[in-house]
Specification:
3-stranded antiparallel sheet; alpha/beta; 6-stranded mixed sheet; globular; 235 residues
């Protein structure tokens, strides 16, 4: 469904993504993992066309219309002074002109997250966790074919992390392809069909969970893997 071939992106003298190749298959949950600074968000932004790679090739097969993409950004970016329902319907209308279906989906998701009674409240009155739920709803409200969720667990306690995991599993069961970008291996290892672990902009490990476990059983790879998830950065 999506292929990256030797993609590279450089900021000044830093290669945020350096010769990355990967593919996401239709109907799967694909996890893009790595510590802060590994290049996950840069990769996500190239996939969505927000920024262009300096070299390499990135393409959907078949070609994907932007209206069929869903995106949960890492940064919170919803209108603080607008009521919840109005915000969702506006953002949904940017991707779909089926207003009746958008209203159905908004009600479904607000009910799912226990927020329907707050549909007329301004976004600014919600907690950070509830604002993150609204952003999650906005990413999937129009029922995209392909959803990119960048750090979807940000700001959630363990109970809500489990709730989000359940929602992602349900979306995949409904036919949606999901790309998860995260740095918490333990939160996504039960969800994803396949994984790619980034380290300094390059592929470090990839495959199914069992394949990765087999590879990291090697002492040299295990030590590098553990140390990579304790480093910081921003790319």
């Amino acid at each position: 469904m999506l292929a990256l071939e030797n993609v590279r992106k450089v900021y000044q003298t830093v290669a945020a993504v350096d010769g990355l190749s990967m593919e996401v298959r239709k109907g799967e949950i694909f996890a893009l993992l790595g510590p802060n600074g590994a290049g996950k968000t840069t990769t996500v932004r190239m996939i969505l066309g927000i920024i262009e790679p300096d070299s390499g090739r990135l393409h959907f097969d078949p070609p994907m219309e932007r209206s069929r993409l869903g995106y949960l950004p890492e940064e919170r970016g919803i209108y603080q002074d607008t009521p919840v329902a109005e915000t969702l319907l506006y953002l949904g209308s940017l991707r779909s002109d089926n207003k009746a279906r958008l209203k159905e989906q908004a009600k479904f998701w607000l009910d799912r997250f226990g927020l329907y009674d707050r549909r007329n409240d301004k976004i600014s009155t919600l907690s950070k966790g509830n604002q993150q739920k609204i952003q999650f709803i906005a990413a999937v409200l129009h029922e995209p074919e392909f959803a990119v969720l960048d750090e979807p667990y940000s700001g959630f306690d363990p109970i809500n992390q489990e709730l989000i995991s359940s929602c992602i599993t349900e979306l995949r069961a409904g036919g949606m392809t999901v790309l998860l970008s995260a740095h918490q291996m333990q939160l996504v290892e039960r969800l994803a069909d396949r994984f790619l672990l980034l380290h300094q902009g390059k592929e470090f490990l990839s495959g199914t969970l069992e394949e990765i476990r087999t590879k990291t059983a090697r002492e040299d790879l295990h030590d590098i893997f553990i140390s990579s998830f304790s480093t910081g950065g921003t790319a």
